[in-house]
């Protein structure tokens, strides 16, 4: 089978791009990486993702696909044979649950983390911490139901929901270290804490979580940018 | 067969519920419908959807599912007749993309266009029109988003032009017009003409009154 050109337009610091990388690794698909500068946005990005002009974009056989979770599903469906594990569960209800929690996480997690980094005072950060803590509580519970006693949300191996949630671990650590307040704690989420270690160590993931110090370094200019946008009432 | 029982918890004026009704109708699935009073949510709903506390909720074999687009995928994977999603992974990715685009981008800008005032409204309306126009890409060379027959995207987004039409009547603003969005306009009319689609639609006048009240709440709560 022609493992034809697979390209990823991405950014080293993006959790969403990381999702695509993990999925490709699970399927052992080699790919070419274009590091997007985003400022200005490359012609390739604007052409491949005219609607959102965002990373990641997967280009397969010259055809672009965007939106990280949609790309992960595409990868799972395109390279589906006995040689590589499935990313989504096989049972329709389990698949629906995995998608449900992944969408829930997307709605709540990164926007709240961004806000924690952007707002100025501890008081302003508090409600966003509350959101993250609620998410951790719910996802801890979901882990029990989805994993059914196995090491990952997906069962024996890293799956869709592992990828969806785990991709945020790098930025979570940054947020925790910036303000010295931990969100993923043993007392509240014992299963998730252990899962996070397993996830980071898994061959499909190892090396893909961006370097902590580098993320901390770019969090500073990002904070300035987001604060500037917030000040003029724009969505950051 | 009791083990196969399907229950849909919904609200008559809810677009996400309508999506699920259409999917069930297209697949010929029998189900029990339970109308929820959203101003006084039942314990059943809160129990089945503790995260969002919203309709629709589909309960199949005793197991509840929330979020309409996910429910559509579940229905498509569980009952294989009359497939909703296309066959190829690439086209499936695009179907998912457009459905999500409507929810994430079109709907908020349409709501903003109808609920804001003055200059802000003009800007919002422009943005809404731009987003709607983008949908025409998905219709390129096709009668419906699903091709010759309606599919996932059609039932995911087919409610929007109907709702927009209703709000256009109330607010006197035009978002979808035949000249600037010819493909979208013909798609919409063809879609609404399909008997199975028409049958599930909430009645026009009832929806008009309901939407008037809804808009009043929106405009009184949005900042000047």
TrEMBL record, chain A:
The keyword Transcription does not apply. The keyword Transferase applies. SUPFAM superfamilies: GST C-terminal domain-like, Thioredoxin-like. Its EC number is 2.5.1.18. Residues 91-222 form the GST C-terminal domain. Residues 4-83 form the GST N-terminal domain. Keywords: Transferase. It is an enzyme of class 2 (transferase). It catalyses: RX + glutathione = an S-substituted glutathione + a halide anion + H(+). Belongs to the GST superfamily. This is glutathione transferase. It comes from Stylosanthes scabra.
TrEMBL record, chain B:
InterPro entries: Glutathione-S-Trfase_C-like, Glutathione-S-Trfase_C_sf, Glutathione_S-Trfase, Glutathione_S-Trfase_N, GST_C, GST_C_Tau, Omega/Tau-like, Thioredoxin-like_sf. Transmembrane segments: none annotated. Residues 4-83 form the GST N-terminal domain. CDD domains: GST_C_Tau (cd03185), GST_N_Tau (cd03058). It is an enzyme of class 2 (transferase). Residues 88-214 form the GST C-terminal domain. Keywords: Transferase. It catalyses: RX + glutathione = an S-substituted glutathione + a halide anion + H(+). Belongs to the GST superfamily. This is glutathione transferase. The lineage of its organism: Eukaryota, Viridiplantae, Streptophyta, Embryophyta, Tracheophyta.
């Amino acid at each position: 089978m022609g493992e034809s050109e697979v390209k990823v337009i991405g950014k080293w610091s993006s959790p969403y791009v990381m999702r695509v990388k993990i999925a490709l690794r699970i399927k052992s698909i080699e790919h070419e990486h274009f590091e997007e500068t985003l400022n200005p946005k490359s012609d390739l990005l604007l052409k491949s993702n005219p609607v959102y002009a965002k990373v990641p974009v997967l280009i397969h056989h010259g055809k672009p696909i965007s939106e990280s979770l949609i790309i992960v599903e595409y990868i799972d469906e395109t390279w589906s044979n006995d040689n590589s594990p499935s990313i989504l569960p096989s049972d329709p209800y389990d698949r629906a649950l995995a998608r449900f929690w992944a969408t829930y996480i997307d709605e709540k997690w990164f926007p709240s983390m961004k806000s924690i980094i952007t707002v100025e005072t501890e008081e302003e950060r508090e409600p966003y911490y509350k959101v993250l803590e609620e998410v951790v509580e719910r996802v801890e519970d979901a882990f029990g139901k989805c994993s059914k006693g196995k090491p990952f949300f997906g069962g024996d191996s890293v799956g869709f929901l592992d990828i969806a949630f785990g991709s945020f671990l790098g930025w979570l650590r940054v947020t925790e270290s910036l303000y010295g307040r931990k969100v993923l704690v043993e007392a509240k989420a014992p299963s998730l804490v252990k899962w996070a270690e397993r996830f980071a160590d898994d061959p499909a993931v190892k090396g893909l979580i961006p370097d902590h110090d580098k993320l901390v370094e770019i969090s500073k200019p990002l904070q300035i940018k987001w604060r500037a946008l917030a000040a003029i009432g724009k969505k950051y | 067969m009791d083990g196969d029982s399907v229950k849909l918890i919904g609200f008559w004026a809810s677009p996400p519920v309508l999506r699920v009704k259409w999917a069930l109708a297209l697949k010929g699935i029998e189900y029990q419908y339970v109308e929820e009073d959203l101003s006084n949510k039942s314990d059943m709903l809160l129990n089945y959807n503790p995260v969002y506390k919203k309709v629709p909720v589909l309960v199949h074999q005793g197991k509840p599912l929330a979020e309409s687009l996910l429910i559509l995928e579940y229905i498509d994977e569980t009952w294989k007749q009359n497939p909703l999603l296309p066959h190829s992974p690439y086209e499936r990715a695009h179907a998912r993309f457009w459905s999500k685009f409507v929810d994430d981008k079109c709907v908020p800008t349409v709501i903003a266009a109808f609920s804001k005032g003055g200059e802000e409204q003009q800007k919002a309306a422009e943005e809404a029109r731009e987003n709607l126009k983008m949908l025409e890409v998905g219709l390129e060379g096709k009668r419906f988003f699903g091709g010759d027959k309606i599919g996932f995207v059609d039932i995911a987004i087919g409610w929007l032009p109907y709702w927009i039409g209703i709000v256009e009547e109330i607010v006197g603003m035009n978002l979808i017009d035949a000249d600037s969005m010819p493909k979208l306009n013909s798609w919409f009319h063809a879609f609404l003409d399909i008997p199975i689609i028409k049958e599930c639609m909430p009645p026009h006048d009832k929806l008009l009154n309901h939407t008037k009240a809804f808009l009043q709440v929106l405009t009184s709560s949005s900042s000047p």
